[in-house]
Amino acid sequence: xxxxxxxxxxxxxxxxxxxxPADLSLExxxxxxxxxxxxxxxxxxxxxxxxLIDHGGETKLDGKALSSLSPRERAKQIAYxxxxxxxxxxxxxxxxxxxxxxxxxxxxxxxQDGNVVERVLNTMGLKDLRGQxxxxxxxxxQMRVSLARALAVxxxxxxxxxxxxxxxxxxxxxxxxxxxxxxxxGDGVVVVMHDLALAARYADRIILMKDGAILADGPPVxxxxxxxxxxxxxxxxRQTDIHREDGPINVALPSxxxxxx
Length: 261
Ligand code: ADP
Ligand code: MG
Description:
Bound molecules: adenosine-5'-diphosphate, magnesium ion
Strand order of the largest sheet: 6-7-8-3-9-10
Largest sheet: 6 strands, mixed
CATH class: Alpha Beta
Structural class: alpha/beta
CATH superfamily: P-loop containing nucleotide triphosphate hydrolases
Helix content: 25-40%
Strand content: 25-35%
Number of domains: 1
Radius of gyration: 19 Å
Order of helices and strands: EEEHEEHEHHHHEHEHEEHHEE
């Protein structure tokens, strides 16, 4: 098992505190969903964990400071799918997914790299699009290519920031099922998302964020209580049964704007 840990992780820009000091321990074999309203600090938390923005506190991978790892080593251990990433160059789908192998061998690719790319194209349903320029793809297809590239890294941890954005309902299920499969296979998967029902269905653990702070952290059935969902998202809720591999759970899902009364 591997551990990605943060102690007293915090982010400020000028006088603005974007992330309140947070302690966090993420482990492999687990699918963790980060939920919270827009502007809650979810992306900031991921970027700070990855060392992509200035931050206070410590981050460690298996007890070793992340800052002591070379960028290549870190990229090999922790794959990252940024939020709202768009493709800038007219590369083929296959070429973009192959970029995910970069931390492993720089510009030279081995047969092993080819096998990984092949497997990931297959997993993400991208085989028929492999030769197509990513610039000609739909938003949903581009998202699947970005996620495929992140999966091709074969990192120990995968941090995906809103990978379900712009996907149709069927692909949202498919992607969550792929990510859950990665976690079952031993990866540490962290997903920022907005669909509470999908989080309830697939996540092992939910982290609730609001106003730059982690409010609560635990299994879906306790995190998605009426009280939590109402106070984090300012909505009314309805209790709903959610089917899970390990049995049904009953959670609160948003149903209506918060009453003004
Ligand atoms: P989330 O991903 O939860 O929607 P973010 O982590 O992107 O939220 O942003 C949290 C808050 O920090 C937002 O209010 C956002 O406007 C602010 N913020 C993010 N980046 C910067 C920045 N570079 N400068 C100033 N404010 C920022
Ligand atoms: Mg965000």
